[in-house]
Every structure is written in structure tokens, then in C-alpha cells.
Amino acid sequence: MRILLVEDEKKLASFVLKGLAEHGYAVDMAETYKEAIELASDNDYDLVVLDVMLPDGNGVDFANWLRGNDYKGPILMLTALTSTTDKVKGLDAGADDYLAKPFAFEELMARVRALLRRYGDSPESSVLKFGDVEMNLISRKVSRSGQDISLTTREFALLEYLMRNAGRPVSRTQIIEHVWDMSFDSGSNVVDVYVNMLRKKIDKPFDSKIIQTVVGFGYEMRAEAS
Ligand code: CA
Fold first, then answer.
1. Are 46 and 75 contacting, i.e. CB atoms less than 8 angstroms apart?
2. DSSP class of residue 125?
3. Closest by Cα among 41, 20, 33, 115 to 74
4. How many Å lie between the centroid of ligand 1 and the Cα of residue 193?
5. Coil, strand or helix: which one is 99?
6. Following CA atoms 44, 152, 213, 127 in sequence, which dihedral angle do they give, to the nearest 10 degrees?
7. Alpha helices of 165-226 — where are they, by DSSP H?
């Protein structure tokens, strides 16, 4: 899951960014309206967290821009303004939910989870399945053949990305973009390192391998050819 965070208050932004990253989300951050447009033009996001008062523009206008540019995911607005007019403006512009500052991080997380769930394909979309592997995105439990598997936050995010793309190869760059964030040095072998750690838990103890290497490209979640 990749989130765009648009917030110019540095302290708040870094606190939110850190918290979201700890929960396994890949987060890109924009401090201005201009940066937000640039990032959203170049990347696909699963959720946008958006401050209303930006130094060079208004979050409501950015929400309008997103909807006008085919962004179909949820938008959560952050604002110090709690007047009804502002809420109505934001919701009219295509925001899905509002959170007034100051807020507790737990409340932000609860709203993020609720929005992602609401935007999921079906009520079942909180559970991903591939063969005998099951991952519950809400309880964050993973099992294979009914055996619980304990994953770190990053391993979980990696598995989630592979599961969501099961049956098609994903490149190392795509993996980095969705599981880490854009600031990562794409020349590093971090993806291979994490795939190996994940394989030790999800493949090695079992008879068949489900994470396949696509030589010169990346990885694919696919049942082994028998
Ligand atoms: Ca602001």
C-alpha cells in the first residue's frame, strides 16, 4: 500500500510518516501543493492524506485536481479548521473523510484502515489468498497450510504486494516503489535480501515454492510448475 502524505508542518508530517511506515505502508511526502501535483502525476497511490492549508495552495483544490485526474482512491483530509463550510467544501471536492488537528495517531490509523477497507473490492478484500497462503490485512496474520507464519512489518508489506500481483511478474523497481518509498536507492539489493528472508519463512518449510525469480527482472508469485 502506497500513501501520499501532503502536509507542510514538518513535525507533524514526520511523526505521521514514521507511524505509517511502522505499520508497513510506503509513504511519499509532499510539503507543498506543487510537490503534491508532481508526485501524484508520476505515481499511483492507494490513499492520499491531505492537509488543507498548504503554503502555496489549498488542499481542497488538490482534492479537486486528483478527482479530475482520475484518482479513484480514498482521500483523508487533515485540518485545523473544523467549520462546517470547510468540511462541506472538502467533501464536495471528493474527500472521503475529515480529521481535525490535533489528532491521536491511533485515530488516524483507524481512519486509514477504514478507508482502505471501504475502497477494497469486496468485504472479503481484507483477506488475500494464494494457494494455501492466507493473509489477513486487518489482523495482520499470515498462514500457509494452516500454519501461522510470523513476518516483520516489511516482510508483510512485501508479501502483500506480491500477493496482490499474483500471476504476473513484478520488477524490483515496482517492488521498491510500493513496499519502500521513492527515496530508496534503487541500485541496492534490498529487494533480494527481503525476498530471501520472506522465502525462508513462506517457502522453505513447505513442499512447493510460490515466490519465483524472474531472471533479469524481478519476482512473481506463482505455483511451481510440476
Ligand atoms: Ca498546513
1. no
2. G
3. 115
4. 38
5. strand
6. -60
7. 172-179, 190-202
126: DSSP letter: G
Going along 145-224, which residue ranges are E strands?
147-149, 170-171, 211-214, 218-221
Identify which of 40, 20, 21 has the alpha carbon closest to the alpha carbon of residue 30: 40
Residues 56-91: pLDDT tens digits? 999 999 999 999 998 988 999 998 766 677 777 777
- The pTM of this model reads 0.64
Identify the DSSP state of 71: -
Spacing, Cα 53 to ligand 1 middle (Å):
4
**Cell digits of residue 166:** 499474483
d(CA 106, CA 23) in angstroms, rounded, equals 11
* All domains in the chain, ordered by first residue: 2-119 (3.40.50.2300), 127-221 (1.10.10.10)
Q: Cell match 487533515: residue?
A: 78
Tens digit of each residue's pLDDT (9 = 90 or more) over 34-51:
999 999 999 889 899 999
Peptide bond before residue 74 is cis, with ω within 30 degrees of 0: no
From the CA of 181, how far away is ligand 1's center (Å)?
23
* CA–centroid distance, residue 8 to ligand 1 (Å): 5
Contacts of 79 (CB under 8 A, 6+ apart): 51, 52, 53, 59, 86, 90, 98, 99, 100, 101
- The number of angstroms, rounded, from the C-alpha of 217 to the middle of its chain's C-alpha atoms is 22
What is d(CA 134, CA 130) in angstroms, rounded to the nearest whole number?
7
Q: Is the dihedral of CA 55, 57, 58, 60 positive or negative?
A: negative
Q: What is the residue whose three cell numbers read 490485512? A: 137
Output the CA–CA distances (angstroms, integers) from residue 202 to 56, 119, 134, 205, in the order listed: 47, 28, 11, 7
